[in-house]
Amino acid sequence: MATPRKSTSKRQPSSERSTPTPTPRSGTDALSRGRGGEPQHQAGGDHPVMTTAQGIPVPDNQNSLRPSPRGPTLLEDFILREKITHFDHERIPERIVHARGSAAHGYFELTRSLSKHTTAKVLTEKGKRTPVFCRFSTVAGGAGSVDTPRDVRGFAVKFYTDEGNWDLVGNNIPVFFIQDAMKFPDLIHAVKMEPDRGWPQAGSAHDTFWDFVSQMPESLHMVTWAMSDRAIPRSLRMIEGFGIHTFRLVDADGNSTFVKFHWRPKLGLQSTLWDEALKLQAADNDFHRRDLWEAIDRGDFPEWELAVQLFTEEDAERFPFDHLDPTKLIPEELVPLTVIGRMVLDRNPDNVFAETEQVAYCPANIVPGIDFSNDPLLQGRLFSYLDTQLKRLGGPNFHQIPVNAPKCPFAHHQRDGHMQMEVPKGRVAYEPQTLDPEGPRASAARGFRSFAERVEDDGRKGRVRAGSFADHYSQARMFYRSQSAIEQQHIADALTFELSKVGTPHVREAVVGHLRHVDEDLAQQVADGLGLDALPMAPAPAAPVLDLAPSPALRIIERMKDTLKGRSVAILVAEGSDGTQLKALKRGVEKAGAHVTVVAPKLRIRLADGKPLDADAQLAGTPSVMFDAVASVLDPDEAAKLARDPGAVDWFRDAFHHFKAIAACGGTRKHLFAAARIKADAGVFEPENVGAFVEGAKGRFWKRGAKPR
Ligand code: HDE
């Protein structure tokens, strides 16, 4: 039975609501006023009337329907039931891998036509801008995990081309752990949290992952990458992307050229140190997604070049590895990269769930003129994505969700199914047919045509692995030997850290045994770090380990761009700071292209001239790991006070030990450097000398603490 109610549309003034009058225990007066349940702030003006999902106006969004003020809630309350039911169903299954992601809209602009090799319009119409939606992700952690674990990053791009959607679903590492799709569930079960205990979340430093690695030498190449600085990027705006597999381009005559796709960040590559990554996890779980979102929000649009490596069947035959093996890369020195376009991400999603969560990438989405290769990992992926998305998005019509729908005209006879959003007209939903002259029909001229690859005549069906996939170590060795000494040290440290978290001695030893094929010195360092008495035996390799020519293009440190563009600099101020000096420093750093954050112990301080200053961030929640370089403009007495604050001391200690440029005022040098035991070096600048600081902030001062090898 419904209780008669007065209209609640007339809001009481808040002063009346805040009067602490005793709540009556019965009576319709208390019910209709909703005392205690009224929101404190009502939006003024012409706001739309709130309705249910059925469009019925909602009279009261604070109180459920009950027969008396303290009585039970009535089942009849369809408004409450609809609201709660929808809420109960708000979560969909998260992705089994790549669950945590951030994405943006943008465009791809072709700057060089590949018309010699392909008919795909997206790759032939020079100057054309194709809309894209790009999602970055970590792999192992759940959607609610953190942004900065040691992990591979997904780099998936959906191109809404005039000939249908093309999805380039890649990673930020150019090779993969396994050669055959058959092993993917095993790999993921091994790296995800262990099923009996439920940890670790988003990390590979545990027994099951390394046990799998120890049994799968083919993973060694990617493991070496995953232990390198590539797996702890500074920003999603500073990672490379790779299609990994060899694909084909197909021309109008049906000829094919092999192709590998590479994304290269305009801002250059940059990574964090492991210590920074750990501290970033504590400081800001959302460090990467916030960085991407804020950069786009302020118009600092991230940009990548799309480059291709093109090669023929004959070229491939000369490679010392199989181009169909996804654990192998083709060094740039062997097949150079040709830049063909650029991608600019210039719009944040309007709604994370509707777009970032519901976007469904699929390597099988390709357009005429592009084709697959026989890479056995790619072949398995062609099945997996649609299959998982049917479950994740609840049915076969997820291609109708706006972020997934093609932007070109489309027409087919697929009908019905869960969540059908279209209202197809007419009686014809089949083909061939004579009843509807407007009905869609296949087109041999315009349709997708698979490359007419010759299939071996003497093939024998079987569960086999090609002998040309047998070399598991040579490229891991090449990668390691291509790194600078600093990066090699980081790989050794990362392996030592990860294996130190492995509780099973024989697993640790087996992995160190494999490392001997990568590099004897690397294996020795890790063995020392783990306290092994002797180097374990190296397993017999399935193919001879080759000393391939190093590829310096695989380094990061030397490819960090000589620029402050896209970087982030913090200036620490406190009560009594010199406003003029702060202004000059800020202006100089901003002019060089960096984003400046003014950090202070309190959000509002008074400068030396008495003027108030609103800081951008508070010191306690803003450690220096969040920035590429730091500076201070402090009154000496305030610096002395801050030297008693461990957070302030760590601010400088960390910046220094993370090899960053520091513009330190006199007070900082005298008090905070003393407390942090910092001895100023070539990476420490005067805040007045903005030009020198800007130059220094473009790189890191690795000499500061290089560990001797
Ligand atoms: Fe994926 N992968 N994957 N993967 N993958 C998924 O699809 C799978 C592989 C990659 O931002 C899933 O919709 C198999 C390589 C990215 O939404 C799933 C195999 C590469 C994303 C799946 C691989 C990737 C996924 C999970 C081995 C780099 C996130 C949810 C045969 C080239 C895309 C989903 C996004 C997502 C399966 C290997 C990249 C389960 C079976 C190699 C970037 O379908």
Automatic annotation (TrEMBL):
<keyword id="KW-0575">Peroxidase</keyword>
<comment type="similarity">
    <text>Belongs to the catalase family. HPII subfamily.</text>
</comment>
<dbReference type="GO" id="GO:0005829">
    <property type="term" value="C:cytosol"/>
</dbReference>
<comment type="function">
    <text>Decomposes hydrogen peroxide into water and oxygen; serves to protect cells from the toxic effects of hydrogen peroxide.</text>
</comment>
<dbReference type="InterPro" id="IPR024708">
    <property type="entry name" value="Catalase_AS"/>
</dbReference>
<keyword id="KW-0376">Hydrogen peroxide</keyword>
<dbReference type="InterPro" id="IPR018028">
    <property type="entry name" value="Catalase"/>
</dbReference>
<feature type="compositionally biased region" description="Low complexity">
    <location>
        <begin position="15"/>
        <end position="28"/>
    </location>
</feature>
<keyword id="KW-0349">Heme</keyword>
<keyword id="KW-0479">Metal-binding</keyword>
<dbReference type="GO" id="GO:0042744">
    <property type="term" value="P:hydrogen peroxide catabolic process"/>
</dbReference>
<dbReference type="Pfam" id="PF00199">
    <property type="entry name" value="Catalase"/>
</dbReference>
<dbReference type="InterPro" id="IPR010582">
    <property type="entry name" value="Catalase_immune_responsive"/>
</dbReference>
<dbReference type="InterPro" id="IPR011614">
    <property type="entry name" value="Catalase_core"/>
</dbReference>
<protein>
    <recommendedName>
        <fullName>Catalase</fullName>
        <ecNumber>1.11.1.6</ecNumber>
    </recommendedName>
</protein>
<dbReference type="Pfam" id="PF18011">
    <property type="entry name" value="Catalase_C"/>
</dbReference>
<feature type="binding site">
    <location>
        <position position="95"/>
    </location>
    <ligand>
        <name>heme</name>
    </ligand>
</feature>
<dbReference type="GO" id="GO:0004096">
    <property type="term" value="F:catalase activity"/>
</dbReference>
<feature type="domain" description="Catalase core">
    <location>
        <begin position="51"/>
        <end position="439"/>
    </location>
</feature>
<dbReference type="GO" id="GO:0046872">
    <property type="term" value="F:metal ion binding"/>
</dbReference>
<dbReference type="GO" id="GO:0020037">
    <property type="term" value="F:heme binding"/>
</dbReference>
<dbReference type="InterPro" id="IPR020835">
    <property type="entry name" value="Catalase_sf"/>
</dbReference>
<keyword id="KW-0408">Iron</keyword>
<dbReference type="InterPro" id="IPR024712">
    <property type="entry name" value="Catalase_clade2"/>
</dbReference>
<feature type="active site">
    <location>
        <position position="171"/>
    </location>
</feature>
<feature type="binding site">
    <location>
        <position position="392"/>
    </location>
    <ligand>
        <name>heme</name>
    </ligand>
</feature>
<keyword id="KW-0560">Oxidoreductase</keyword>
<dbReference type="GO" id="GO:0006979">
    <property type="term" value="P:response to oxidative stress"/>
</dbReference>
<dbReference type="Pfam" id="PF06628">
    <property type="entry name" value="Catalase-rel"/>
</dbReference>
<dbReference type="InterPro" id="IPR002226">
    <property type="entry name" value="Catalase_haem_BS"/>
</dbReference>
<feature type="binding site">
    <location>
        <position position="184"/>
    </location>
    <ligand>
        <name>heme</name>
    </ligand>
</feature>
<feature type="binding site" description="axial binding residue">
    <location>
        <position position="385"/>
    </location>
    <ligand>
        <name>heme</name>
    </ligand>
</feature>
<feature type="binding site">
    <location>
        <position position="135"/>
    </location>
    <ligand>
        <name>heme</name>
    </ligand>
</feature>
<feature type="binding site">
    <location>
        <position position="381"/>
    </location>
    <ligand>
        <name>heme</name>
    </ligand>
</feature>
<dbReference type="InterPro" id="IPR029062">
    <property type="entry name" value="Class_I_gatase-like"/>
</dbReference>
<dbReference type="InterPro" id="IPR041399">
    <property type="entry name" value="Catalase_large_C"/>
</dbReference>
<dbReference type="InterPro" id="IPR043156">
    <property type="entry name" value="Catalase_clade2_helical"/>
</dbReference>
<feature type="active site">
    <location>
        <position position="98"/>
    </location>
</feature>
<feature type="region of interest" description="Disordered">
    <location>
        <begin position="1"/>
        <end position="71"/>
    </location>
</feature>
